[in-house]
Amino acid sequence: MEAAAISPWRANLATVGALIARAKNELVRVPGAAIPGVLAPTIFFLGLNGVFGSLIHLNGFDTNSYVSFIVPVSMLQGAGFTGAAAGVNLARDYEQGWVDRLLVSPTPRWVLLTGNVLAASVRAFVPATFVLAIAFAIGAPWPGLDGLLVTYLMVAAMAAVAACWGSMLALHYKSQSAAPLMQAGMMGLILLTPAYAPLELLQPWLEKVAEINPVTHVVEAARQGFVGSVTWADTWPGLLALAGLLAVLGALALREMRRTNV
Amino acid sequence: MSDLAGTARVVRALGARSIRQTFRRPQLISPIIVFPTLLLAIQTGGAGAGIELPGFPPVQSFLQFMLAGSMMQSMMLAGNSGGIAFAVDIEMGFTDRLFASPIPRFAIVLGRLAGTAALGLFAALWFLAIGLIFGAEIEGGVPGALLAIALVTTSALAVGGIGAAIALRTGSASVVQGLFPLVLVVLFLSSAFFPQDLMVEPAKTIAEYNPLSFIVEGVREPIIAGIDLTQTLEAVAAIAGIVVLGLVLSARALRHRLRVG
Asked: Could you report the predicted ipTM of this complex, rounded to two decimals?
């Protein structure tokens, strides 16, 4: 009897699904593994709010709630940490020989990368939701359904960007020792923006950096529902920035994956 | 060779080993230098306009104000990293070999703490250098800088004692590593990054009683204003309290470790 042929696209989708399921299993079976990724943005959120909360009294702040101003940044920071953790996990998998087994399979390299990256996007909902719940508990106003959807979209895509960055470094250095570089890179990218204060209140050097940092558009898109209303004019630059970052970092990560020999 | 000289040699050798270990492992040196430096740049650039708020103490710049906070962050993380490295030594059996050698047991802990103190010294020098390079002035002059360096170094020793105690008690690097978020909590609930009077409740009230606030103000004052005896003594008292706590916990944990092996 002749076995039914499976289309390559269906096989690739099944592989991506299996890799996402593996990441989900890790989350369910080792709940402790998710704690650092959830704790860090939560501590930053509460800490920054307690420390810098009075900055809203400065002329130039367009909101009277620092909680609203900072919560999207902390959600993106959680996405950054989760994406970087995907890179650390990939390095761990390489050290333990799991990546070798994936590489000898007939699965295309881009499918393996996509599985890892999408898994990070899904996992990023955990810290984002946790931080958001705490923000609501301490008085953050409802950002509207559209505001919330845009924020979650930015969070998921930012986690994918961070996972591409982490995967690129993991495959280049092939060691978990590169973890600080994965985390510091994302921390810098997300916080060298109008994260703490509006653009015009930043120090001149940071204002210049933030103006050319594409993640500034992501932060502003994610924040719009919390500090005002959602508009297409504030949304599309964030989407474009994320698409550009995904294209560049995704290509670099894929290049490293293709260079990785068994 | 006298006992004291022999012990000093052991402490020096173990201290030097702990410093080399830290600089060779990116996971250990990054939290001490890379992250606090990155955060210093981000917070200085992002929240620098805060010095215009009514009630902000007179400072030359926000960078000048933030230097003490960054030193505290680096010092606390040096203590945590020292604890992690000590726990790794326990996990790998290196500490057992030291226990079996004819050296005083307290020298093993003291060697680790000497290394942590040296990292605290390095952190103080690093951030003072960054401050000077980017235009911050040390109002207390050379004596003020020396006082800040001395307070940061002894604070690292004090905090390292608590990290060593936890490492000895648990023998697990992951447990000590798990304290990393707690370090951030203690930092945010102190006046390390912003004047306590301008913080938002409940952080403001907690910062008032947090021993780290006393230390950070003792380090900050020589940088932003000049040496102030009261604040220096308060910082010294807070450090002494943490040293005593660290010593008591370390001694008990060492006894526990020797008992359980």
From this structure: 0.76
